[in-house]
Request: fold
Amino acid sequence: MEFAACRDWYLGSFPPGEVNRQRARTHDGLYRAYIVGESNTRAANHQIVREWRTMVRERADWEKYRERLLKQVQDFKKIKSAFVEEKAAFEVEKKSEEWGREGLKSKLQAAEELLSKERAKWKKVCEKDNQRMYAARSKITDLEAQIATLKGKVEEVEADKGHVEVASKDKDLAAKDVEIAELKRRLFEAIDKNESLEIDLEAERVKADTAEEAKKKAEEARDISTSALNVAQNNYAEAQSIVDTLVSESEWMRGRGVDAIANSILNATELDGAVAALIDASRAVGHRGVI
Reply:
């Protein structure tokens, strides 16, 4: 006999046909039906108690699982707040890097402008130095020619001194000595002038070397600024990629992460399995109602 029929029998709500059928049964049949119904009732109660104990254990497991999920949610909130703080700090660092990059750009532009100005000045100085050196070289060449001419005249005068007559030797020698002294004076003046021109030429060469060193220093400063700018741009690109990744993960967690956690709690296979097992057990013992 089914459990529902026994329940209807106890409630006194048999249909008329069933009442007539039961009245037509013998005393032994009714007693047997009562015994079977009571046995089924007790078996169902015992099954419900066993399932309840199992459900209590599963409920405890589910509570532990729920606590773990709540802890994960709290950890996620902490991680999210830490992420927000790190993002703010990163924005500050990003702005500082942008300012530093702008400063490097301005320094690079200033260095390039200074280098262009120094290069123009250096070209002008080189042109002037070349003109001065050419003029000095021309003067030195002319003076060397004059010195050679004067030496030739001195040699001629000294050669002529040996061919003069003995009578006018002293007079001629005195005149020649005066002429030789004058020629030597002019020769020494030409030598001094030549040395001064060589000193000026050496000074111009030193100026040219100094301008070349200034040019090299300006080029080195430009190279250093360019390398620093490249390093700043690479750091900015890497930081931007990290920020994009973190933002995409945060957007995913904000859009679908919380829903996924809630769905995992509501659609937990352990809870569904416990409820399904309890329903199957109640149906196995003949209970058609909703537990």
